[in-house]
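Reviewers asked in the last cycle whether our approach scales beyond single polypeptides. To address this, we selected a multi-component target totalling 1017 residues and predicted its structure end to end. The input consisted of the following lines:
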Amino acid sequence: MAKVTHTQKACAVNPLKMSQPIGSALAFMGIKNCMPLFHGSQGCTSFGLVLFVRHFKEAIPLQTTAMSEVATVLGGLENVEQAIVTIANRQKPSIIGISSTGVTETKGDDVDGYIKLIREKHPELDHIALVYVSTPDFKDAFQDGWAKTVTRMIEQLVEPVPADAVRDPAKVNLLPGAHVTPGDLDELRDLIEAFGLEPVILPDLSGSLDGHVPDDFTPTTIGGIGLAEIAAMGLSQHTIAVGEQMRPAAEAMEKKTGVPYTLFDRLTGLEVNDDFITLLAGLSGQPVPNKIKRQRSQLVDAMLDGHFHFGGKRIAIGAEPDLLWTLSGWFRELGAELAAAVTTTESPLLERIATAEVLIGDLEDLEARAADCDLLVTHSHGRQAAERLAIPFYRIGIPMFDRLGAAHQTIVGYRGTRDLIFEIGNMFIASGHEPNPETWSLPEETGHVGEKALAAH
Amino acid sequence: MSSVSSKIQDVFNEPGCGKNQGKSEKERKKGCTKQLQPGGAAGGCAFDGAKIALQPITDVAHLVHGPIACEGNSWDNRGSKSSGSNLWRTGFTTDINETDVVFGGEKRLYKSVKEIIEKYDPPAVFVYQTCVPAMIGDDIDAVCKAASKKFGKPVIPVNSPGFVGPKNLGNKLAGEAILDHVIGTEEPEYTTPYDINIIGEYNLSGELWQVKPLLDELGIRILCCISGDAKYHDVASSHRAKAAMMVCSKSMINIARKMEERYGIPFFEGSFYGIEDTSDALREISQLLIERGAPAELMERTEALIAREEARAWAGIEPYKQRLAGKKVLLITGGVKSWSVVAALQEAGLELVGTSVKKSTKEDKERIKELMGEDAHMIDDMSPREMYKMLKDAKADIMLSGGRSQFIALKAKMPWLDINQERHHAYMGYVGMVELVKEIDKALANPVWEQVRKRAPWEETTWEERADAAIAAEAAALAADPELAKAQRRSARICKCKAVERGAIEDAILEHGLSSVEAVTERTHAGSGCTGCAGTIAGILDSIEDWRPGSVSEPAKQAA
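The resulting structure, written as structure tokens, was:
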């Protein structure tokens, strides 16, 4: 329905987009005892690291091959080797996740080849998994980096399974997109477990970046999914993917192991969750628990109470494709209208979004299109635009550096949808304009003949 | 209390009230307050009514003398808007305690007035009497008088404790308070031949401002609106207006009539709800002003403005016509204002169900008012399933009603729009009607309805299917068993106020050969409460052949 356009500007102003290596690194952060490593210059790493520290307010494990000018020109084999050896000795991870960056991709480093050489040279490192993903900064965006990384991990780390293998009927793979928060994952885990099923989540940020206080300090990731669990994912009964970006990963899983998948392009809203719960009931053969029935009923009531405040509202959203799809679909179901949509990268979803135009652009574009909107929805960098526009501002997505609890923002499931209605509905209520004597003034051109009559006395 | 009771008698004798004039001497003495039915009353008290009526006076401190319940549980709960001071929204109460109850609360009241004047320096303090201090004999008139003298500021007693009657009575007692103590105590800076008062308008959601620009353009000055967005000085000097409009509600009729009596200010009863009504009201205002000496050319300008603004309003509604054509609206409300929106709704292509009225002649309007008043009472204790059945039978797409039925309509998953007091949108004047149509369109177009009516994945049937099945099963049971049908019919509660069932009414009609609604009321007390069920009783009388035992058509009707 929407026309997908690209910004015609040479200069991006107030970027919405973040680079794909950090999306890749975030995916590695959902793996237990992992050390994400950027093959690039020191700065590539440090910007990503600071961004995540500000968003999650946690220590972030992220290393760099620290490419110098000379090393960049000559090739990074030595740097990659040194980095891997150093990390192996110091942090002793089970896996090192390597993402390329703009610098090394421009040079054309053959990291796959490097790894082959390093493996030959260092048999003592055989116990450490090395996963490499090509994620040049100058191509695609954050969610692409995440998706490619998950796909790569499945291709490399999941054990192939014969077609007639005995599968575990209790196990369900869950492949969340980059927009699914640790809070969302907790909610999905609860729902899946309520049916007696056991979710195997890849990557699992709810174990690593959910803001818990660990028992002891580790220099690598704390929590997340372990390598043995990843290896065994081929024995699960089914795969649930959340977000269109995860389709290649789910397909890779099916191709390699024969585990069928169901993809939910969003899990915020009533009907999509009906479908989700129906699937879980079908997979488990269990009746729907009363707890979930109550949650659905509460959501229906919240929709009824809330629709008054959403009806006819004009919304401006700046978000990555899957989050944009999730939010715009949900807003529409409550009677609001997507009046301005800006996103970061291509996706088959974009042209299906119910709005006139989806622009692959920046926050300046969003601001220009949001002039007569009732709500601005984007990550924390939208705050200045919202202030200038004098409209309420709902923060969602990465980075969210000026609010607490970014990791726990939960919008999936009946319950997450219900709470989102309350949160945004309350913003509409709070921003309701008080009328004043001039609110309904007559149009200028109609004149004020009467004033003369009155003045005459 | 004697002064309060004499005031009440005075208010009951209101000759300006058409309803009152139709009553016998004896009935008139009983007044327009019916005795409230214990266990069956739901409205506010006289204090509530008095506070509602005067609270919109914005720069005054409204001090409630009583225990915390009266103010603490109710303050800042009204949607009136102010263009100036917000002191009216500050909650002041004496919050009397046990000691005060034993020894009297007058000292605390006096001190409270003193503190308010010292801290807030308002142009006046209004003191509201409540039940407990009235019972223990606190003389607020005397305290107000003393405080006024001491502090050199008007301190106005509003004697309307809750237990003297319902909200409506409180409105009138509040009117008496400002007639006695405020109106005519100050003079306006200047006067013009175009000065009017608007009485009984509270500026809810800022609605007055939807009309004021029209008056501004005509050069008509609202000297005072009683009491929406009013200042104390406006009210005190309102006696110099040339004419007054009493906004379509009887709540402040005593003010309008007594100002006519005392100051010679003629008034008319009108409404700014609905396009035609707004035009009529503007014409009447101009007419009255011209009669009082304003130049006759005012009427020409008024007509020009009406023509222009009506055209603008219809043009505003036009874009919705196509979207709304054929949609059915069920209007359910006790609000006296809402009937006047009917014409605008019909103009927008909406069809009204639940009333058989098609045109808005004067008699039709009365009929709509009556019908809606009845239904409004009826739905108060309806179950969601009954509500669903009613909406389904009416084939309605949307329901317009007052705030109280909101939750039932919503639980029945029916598009709904609030058009009574608690609403957040302003629907007055020409712009207001366009706004209303826009809101209806918004409610109808909201895709939320489609979703919430879907069955849950674990349910075999939808809520509606189950309701339909239950309704069908009930009907079948009744059809199969005439005795059950009869019992069912007889157990219908016709008069909610007095809890009278249909069986009692039928028996009384047969036993005593009654033939008029009045006679039935005399015998059974049905219809002596809010009188909303008079139409239903008339229907029972008219259809006697259908239900009288032994009549030919009886069995057939029972099954229906």
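DSSP finds 28 helices and 14 strands in chain B. We regard this as preliminary and will revisit it once experimental data from Aim 1 are available.
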